[in-house]
């Protein structure tokens, strides 16, 4: 499921945090 990674990356970008799961 790559959608999960996309969503997390999107949230990280909005918050300005480098989130990588």
Automatic annotation (TrEMBL):
Protein name: Chaperone SicP
Species name: Salmonella enterica
């Amino acid at each position: 499921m790559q959608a999960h990674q996309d969503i997390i990356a999107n949230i990280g970008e909005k918050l300005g945090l480098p989130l990588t799961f």
